[in-house]
Amino acid sequence: MENHDDDLKRKPLKIKDITRQIKKAVVASNLRELQKKSAEKFGKPELPRIHLDSDGTEIDDEEYFQTLEPNCELIVAFSGEQWIDPTQYLTITTHNGDEIDNNDVEKIHLKKLISLLSNNKCNMSILSEPDLELLSNLEPNSFADIIGKEFVEHLKQASSRILDEKREAFDTIELLKLIGKHQGITKQSGSNNMEHRPPFSPSSSTTSLSTMSSFSSNNNQQ
C-alpha cells in the first residue's frame, strides 16, 4: 500500500546545472530522492541543494517539495556552486549556440526591472544602486513601444531621485562614523590624561589648604 502511495506522489521534474546548459529529466516522490537522483545524473558524490529556476528559492522542505508542479524546472547546485540569475550572465547562449553581447544582456535585465516596476512601483525602493543607475540612464524612447514614453520618463526621474537619496544617506552614515571615531579618540585621549595625573596625596592637599588659610589670614590682617 505504501509503495502504491509513493508511486502516486512521484512527479516528473526538469533539473539543470547552474549554467543551465546541462538539462536532465527525473522522476521523484520526495526531496531526498530528487537529491540522490540529481547527484547520480550529474556524477557527483554529494547531495546537491535544489533551487527553483525562476527565482532561486532553495527547496529544503519536504512539504514544499510536494507542492511543486509536474515538470517544474529546477537548478541543482553542488558544493561551491550557487544559483545565478540568468540576466547577470556576461554572455547568454541561445538555443542555436549564438552568443548575445553585453548590450543585449543589459536590455534583458532592464526589461525585467521595468516589468517588476510596472506591477508595483514601490519595488523601486528595494533596487540596488547599479539597477537604479541603469534606470536613471534610460533613453526615453528605448522602451516606449512597450510601456509608453511617459512611464519611462517617470522611471528615469524617480530612479535618479532615489539613487541620489541613497548616496546622500551613505555619505551621511560615513560622516557619522568619522565623527564617532573622532569622538572615541578624543575620549580615549582624555582618559589617558586622567591616568597620567599625579595620584591624590592627603599631605599635599593639607599643605594647599594651609597655604590658602595663611594667605587669607594675611589679607585680613592687612
TrEMBL record:
Keywords recorded for this protein, A-Z: Apoptosis
Pfam hit, one: CIDE-N
Listed Low complexity bias regions: 202-222
Entry's Gene Ontology BP terms: apoptotic process; regulation of apoptotic process
Region listing for Disordered, in residue ranges: 186-222
Limits of the CIDE-N domain: 9-85
PANTHER family: CELL DEATH ACTIVATOR CIDE, DNAATION FACTOR-RELATED PROTEIN 1, ISOFORM B-RELATED
Protein name: CIDE-N domain-containing protein
